[in-house]
Amino acid sequence: MKNTLLIIFCTVLFVSTKAQNINPNYDAELAKTVGADDYGMKQYILVMLKTGSNTTSTKTEYDAAFAGHMTNMGKLVKENKLVVAGPMGKNDKNYRGIFILNVKTIEEAKEILATDPAVKAKLLDADLFNWYGSAALGEYLKASEKVRKFKF
């Protein structure tokens, strides 16, 4: 009887402790919309863009490939496949920029990168990593149009 009461007490204590950890701001609909797990996280692919092997392109070819690169990024944002992108400062690793792709596998990310004109022209190459981050990461994109003064 004493052991039964102890087990019941421990169970009630465990359940009430877990209940206290529930986030009072939790929005189940938003969590579902962004694909969040119970921790508000999800799987992405982190892409480290780096200088590619093509060192013989002309300025015209280079400019055209990077114009296409920017256009392609805009298309990927509209398709909800690209949630973060940006250039890197000078560094000793030849990293040029990052992408965080809203896909679950490196194979899917490789297919997306194959559509990028700068990658196709071998002006950029990429290192890809599985990355687990906030499922709400892409939500900042709604505000980004409101905070930049100039269009690309």
UniProtKB/TrEMBL annotation:
Keywords: Signal. It comes from the Bacteria. InterPro entries: Dimeric_a/b-barrel, YCII. Residues 1-21 form the signal peptide. Residues 57-123 form the YCII-related domain. The keyword Cytoplasm does not apply. SUPFAM superfamilies: Dimeric alpha+beta barrel (SSF54909). Belongs to the YciI family. This is YCII-related domain-containing protein. It comes from Pedobacter cryotolerans. The lineage of its organism: Bacteria, Pseudomonadati, Bacteroidota, Sphingobacteriia, Sphingobacteriales.
